[in-house]
């Protein structure tokens, strides 16, 4: 998208009748809510004041209406043209109904998606008008001065290369032209353009002479024999030109083109924008030619303008000449552009559906495919060349080659033969298709219509025709067909008479497929619908069917197009789109696909389908009976609720412990998924009324999500095993000392749910810092039957918590409560049971003959990034197991820490305990499956490589602290949304970890440093904002002196580890950082690879 894309002041859509205005306005507003149109753009739908005012009258009326609105916006009490001086206005003419798309040519649905913006943006059907808005906004109008752009919507307009236009000082009209063959141009308008780009003349359906005059010049400067400059249906009027154009509404006769004329009971006149109005600006057109109407005769004849209006029109032309003549009119030629009018030829329409010319536009905002916005069950068979748009296909539907199926819900055993077109066929109608064998090349479609007098009745009518049929060919001509067979064959086969189809007073040459009363819409005695229409296509002699058909009120194509129910048509498309989306959401949820759904969920909220999607997710969760799937489902629901709040209602993250949700949470904790979901759904219904309540409900669904993650992680309990051993005597301290953890590559991939849905791999080093193991836990049995939990090594400054009742130990789920980690460790190590009918004292006396004192501390600052809390948890469990007389292996301890962190609700992964409890250098890894199991593979290092490790690695304390939990929630949220950059980054994280392992084994420290740098980039993708400014400066200062550097843990502060190029470079690093502005609190520390891991001993 161009940075110079036009910022519209207003976008106006004109339509032919009042009934269309409201649905069209809604379509515009939906696009604005989805961000396809800027939020501050004024959107207007303006119905033509009367029928047949032409594109010129419709433009004048639209300009008047938008000027009124802009004048009111700026505080004027009357219409003032001054508002045009600084406004950018786009007027789009929707025009008449279209036989191949019930929503009109403007809303022909394209086989295309809006280009992905990751989890941002929205989803929706893309139509011709969407493409035209983008074309004008991003290509044609870039850099233009204020003014009015007017664009038809009855064509596909391709502009592969944005034209270069010098807009400096431009005042007048600028028409868009594209090359066209003379054969194509015979049915359209053409420009004669001089070498300076000035329009000399305009012709409609020009003959050979006109074609020669309008021929484009080839590379030698000679006229081309084949290509002419086509009227492309787009024009720009500068603010001065628009001001003059607006003034026309005040002139007698021309006021008939506006709603003011209608309100004044003035008879309307029909004016073409190009062939009645802009024609007077053409340089070589004389006043006499213009005013007399001589130049406009071909257009008037083509569109049957009434002769008695010509006098009024001549007067109007004279006034236009006087007002507008003298304005310059230039052409903006698009050399590689094309214009494809959406004709009434079925053969041409199928060609455009299968190979849309707009595909050649190479617009980066759109992604083309043969199947878009469709759900196709695996049992269906769709030929590769078929184009499927906004459809649901279920059962055993077979779609043949070169078919175009749009807005259909087909079910059952249905065979659609080659080159067929189906539009708007629903699941009920598809039952009739199961009993009918369609012929190849048939167009079958349904129209929603409103018929009757003042009390109009909404109903549906089905139509059928053949690929080779023509709407306009007279019935009596030998080439005239219906459903690809001569009329006589059709009439003989069915028993229908021609008088059944056309009035007796109509001549055979006036009788066409377009006005044949073929299609039943209502019957006094019986229901009629698709069965009768299918009989027309391929049924034989059937007296009952013929009688019912004759007794039915029947419509022609001409009738149908005059009474299309546009609201119902758009509603059906939306219903299908979100019905298909419900299938997709459920499939993605149950299959665990890495498919991004946020744009769709956000769109559902905008268009009022959020509640249905919520119900679909509820259903999918219950069907799955899987904590992992349910956790993602609750994340979906939280996202939908937040989208329903529409950016209002407060911050997304917040507390989630409202008592109203407690009973639902309890059911989830007990593993009762369906009961828990029903309880959540019931409570959710009380929170849908206001944005603030929606946001709070979203927080509580994320709270439920955390419960289910916890249940999923708890499957790791299977890999925790202890054996009976010797218990130390009373008052004998058992002490565990642990190294720090340095994550060299792969972190974040160990985080639930990523670790069990994607799989993880992390290279961790157990390190001594300045020669010391920084983390210690010790425990002893004491005579008093209570728990004493001590935080800190210094008795004078330590925090002591005494638990005498079970309730004193039960608040471990709040990580901010005092001693929460130690309480969780006590519970996880099965020192006590919660809940229990036994008191705390009774449990302790039975198991230990007294109480337990547990004391933990670390020499590292809070938020160091070196895994302190998880390593402390491991040390605490180790000493508690030891004094309980249990033996264990390292794997059991690592999995136990996973459980502790879930009990704490901090939601951490496994890399910290792998690095801090396991000796040396290792790669921990987990598979994407249940139960969650962490395997550890040691990375063997020679003595030489270990020495280099100790000499070249340093730790730098940045002076900044952070809490990983502040970053974790966003990472988990993005993972559940399957943001493409997150999924790709998780792939890269594990890949980098295995590459790092290999580099260590080979002793290639330069490659290790490269892995570290890559890893740091990957961390910033996972958690944007995790690089403080001071850290940026420190890394920049050290860059030339290190192979690699990275913040430890989740980032955001704490320790940074660096791999220096020179050995023993602690003084050098200190010197560099000391001269750095803002780096006042840093410290530099030596690193040694620890070969022992956790060491548990009894103190003397």
TrEMBL record:
InterPro entries: GDP_fucose_pyrophosphorylase, GHMP_Kinase-Related, GHMP_kinase_C_dom, GHMP_kinase_C_sf, GHMP_kinase_N_dom, Ribosomal_Su5_D2-typ_SF, Trimer_LpxA-like_sf. Residues 842-914 form the GHMP kinase N-terminal domain. Residues 82-522 form the GDP-fucose pyrophosphorylase domain. GO terms for molecular function: ATP binding; fucokinase activity. Residues 997-1074 form the GHMP kinase C-terminal domain. Keywords: ATP-binding, Kinase, Nucleotide-binding, Transferase. It comes from the Eukaryota. One of its GO terms (biological process) is GDP-L-fucose salvage. Belongs to the GHMP kinase family. This is L-fucose kinase-like. The lineage of its organism: Eukaryota, Metazoa, Echinodermata, Eleutherozoa, Asterozoa.
């Amino acid at each position: 998208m161009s940075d110079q894309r036009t910022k519209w002041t207003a976008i106006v859509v004109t339509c032919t009748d009042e009934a269309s205005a409201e649905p069209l306005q809604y379509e515009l507003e939906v696009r604005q809510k989805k961000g396809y149109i800027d939020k501050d753009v004024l959107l207007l739908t303006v119905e033509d004041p009367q029928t047949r005012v032409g594109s010129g009258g419709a433009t004048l009326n639209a300009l008047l209406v938008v000027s009124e609105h802009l004048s009111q916006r700026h505080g004027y009490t009357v219409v003032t043209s001054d508002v045009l001086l600084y406004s950018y206005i786009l007027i789009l003419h929707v025009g008449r109904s279209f036989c191949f798309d019930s929503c009109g040519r403007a809303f022909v649905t394209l086989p295309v998606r809006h280009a992905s913006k990751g989890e941002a943006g929205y989803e929706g059907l893309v139509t011709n008008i969407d493409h035209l808005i983008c074309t004008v906004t991003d290509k044609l109008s870039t850099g233009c001065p204020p003014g009015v752009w007017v664009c038809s919507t009855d064509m596909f307009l391709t502009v592969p290369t944005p034209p270069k236009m010098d807009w400096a000082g431009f005042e007048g009209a600028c028409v868009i032209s594209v090359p066209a063959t003379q054969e194509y141009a015979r049915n359209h308008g053409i420009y004669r353009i001089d070498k300076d780009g000035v329009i000399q003349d305009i012709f409609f359906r020009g003959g050979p002479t006109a074609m020669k005059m309008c021929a484009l010049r080839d590379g030698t400067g000679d006229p081309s024999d084949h290509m002419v400059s086509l009227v492309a249906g787009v024009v720009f009027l500068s603010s001065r030109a628009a001001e003059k154009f607006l003034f026309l509404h005040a002139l007698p006769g021309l006021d008939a083109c506006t709603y003011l004329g209608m309100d004044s009971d003035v008879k309307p006149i029909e004016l073409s924008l190009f062939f009645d109005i802009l024609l007077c600006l053409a340089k070589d057109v004389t006043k006499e030619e213009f005013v007399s109407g001589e130049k406009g005769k071909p257009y008037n004849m083509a569109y049957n303008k009434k002769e008695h209006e010509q006098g009024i029109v001549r007067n109007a032309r004279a006034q236009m000449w006087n007002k507008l003549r003298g304005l310059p009119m230039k052409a903006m030629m698009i050399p590689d552009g094309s214009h494809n009018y959406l004709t009434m030829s079925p053969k041409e329409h199928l060609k455009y559906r299968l190979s849309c010319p707009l595909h050649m536009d190479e617009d980066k905002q759109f992604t083309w495919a043969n199947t878009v916005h469709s759900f196709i069950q695996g049992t269906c068979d769709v030929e590769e060349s078929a184009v499927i748009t906004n459809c649901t296909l279920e059962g055993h539907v077979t779609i043949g080659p070169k078919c175009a199926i749009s807005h259909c819900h087909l079910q059952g055993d249905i065979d659609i033969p080659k080159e067929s077109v189906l539009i708007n066929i629903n699941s009920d109608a598809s039952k009739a298709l199961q009993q009918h064998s369609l012929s190849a090349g048939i167009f079958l479609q349904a129209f929603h219509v409103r018929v009757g007098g003042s009390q109009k009745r909404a109903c549906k009518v089905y139509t059928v025709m053949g690929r080779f049929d023509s709407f306009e060919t007279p019935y009596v001509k030998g080439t005239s067909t219906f459903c690809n067979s001569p009329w006589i064959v059709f009439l003989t086969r069915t028993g229908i008479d021609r008088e059944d189809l056309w009035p007796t007073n109509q001549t055979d040459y006036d009788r066409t497929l377009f006005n044949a009363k073929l299609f039943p819409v209502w019957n006094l005695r019986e229901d009629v619908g698709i069965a009768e229409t299918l009989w027309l296509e391929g049924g034989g002699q059937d007296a009952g069917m013929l009688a019912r058909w004759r007794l039915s009120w029947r419509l022609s194509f001409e009738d149908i197009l005059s009474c299309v129910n546009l609201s119902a048509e758009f509603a059906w498309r939306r219903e299908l789109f979100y019905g298909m989306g419900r299938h997709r959401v459920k499939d993605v949820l149950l299959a665990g696909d890495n498919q991004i759904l946020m744009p769709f969920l956000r769109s559902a909220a905008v268009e009022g389908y959020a509640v249905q999607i919520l119900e679909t997710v509820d259903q999918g969760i219950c069907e799955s009976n899987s904590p992992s799937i349910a956790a993602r489902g609750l994340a979906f629901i939280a996202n939908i609720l937040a989208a329903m709040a529409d950016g209002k209602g407060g911050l997304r993250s917040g507390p989630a412990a409202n008592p109203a949700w407690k009973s639902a949470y309890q059911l989830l904790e007990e593993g009762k998924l369906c009961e828990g979901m029903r309880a959540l759904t019931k409570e959710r219904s009380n929170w849908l009324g206001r944005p603030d309540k929606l946001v709070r409900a979203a927080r509580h669904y994320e709270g439920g999500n955390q419960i289910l993650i916890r249940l999923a992680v708890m499957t790791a309990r299977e890999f925790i095993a202890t054996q009976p051993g010797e218990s130390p005597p009373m008052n004998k301290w058992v002490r565990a000392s642990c190294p720090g953890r340095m994550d060299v590559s792969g972190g974040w991939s160990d985080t639930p749910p990523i670790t069990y849905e994607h799989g993880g791999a992390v290279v961790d080093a157990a390190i001594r810092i300045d020669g010391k193991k920084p983390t210690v836990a010790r425990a002893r049995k004491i005579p008093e039957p209570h728990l004493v939990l001590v935080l800190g090594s210094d008795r004078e400054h330590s925090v002591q918590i005494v638990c005498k009742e079970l309730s004193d130990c039960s608040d471990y789920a709040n990580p901010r409560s005092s001693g929460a980690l130690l309480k969780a460790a006590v519970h996880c190590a099965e020192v006590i049971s919660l809940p229990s009918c036994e008191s705390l004292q009774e449990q302790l006396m039975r198991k230990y003959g007294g109480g337990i004192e547990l004391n933990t501390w670390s020499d590292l600052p809070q938020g160091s990034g070196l895994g302190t809390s998880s390593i402390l948890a491991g040390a605490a469990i180790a000493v508690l197991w030891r004094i309980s007389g249990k033996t264990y292996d390292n794997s059991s301890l690592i999995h136990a820490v996973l459980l502790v962190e879930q009990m704490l609700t901090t939601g951490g992964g496994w890399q910290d305990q792998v690095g801090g409890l396991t000796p040396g250098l290792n790669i921990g890894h987990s598979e994407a499956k249940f139960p969650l199991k962490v395997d550890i593979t040691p990375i063997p290092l020679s003595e030489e490589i270990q020495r280099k490790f100790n000499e070249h690695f340093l730790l730098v304390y940045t002076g900044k602290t952070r809490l990983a939990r502040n970053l974790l929630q966003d990472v988990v949220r993005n993972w559940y949304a399957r943001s493409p950059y997150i999924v790709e980054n998780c792939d890269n994280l594990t890949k980098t970890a295995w590459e790092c392992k290999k580099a260590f084994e080979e002793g290639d420290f330069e490659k290790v440093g490269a892995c570290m740098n890559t890893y740091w980039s990957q961390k910033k993708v996972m958690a944007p904002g995790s690089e403080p400014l001071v850290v940026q400066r420190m890394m920049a200062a050290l860059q030339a002196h290190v192979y690699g550097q990275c913040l430890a843990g989740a980032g955001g502060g704490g320790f940074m580890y660096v791999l220096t190029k020179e050995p023993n470079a602690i003084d050098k690093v200190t010197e560099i950082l000391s001269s750095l502005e803002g780096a006042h609190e840093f410290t530099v520390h030596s690193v040694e690879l620890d070969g022992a891991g956790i060491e548990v001993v009894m103190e003397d």
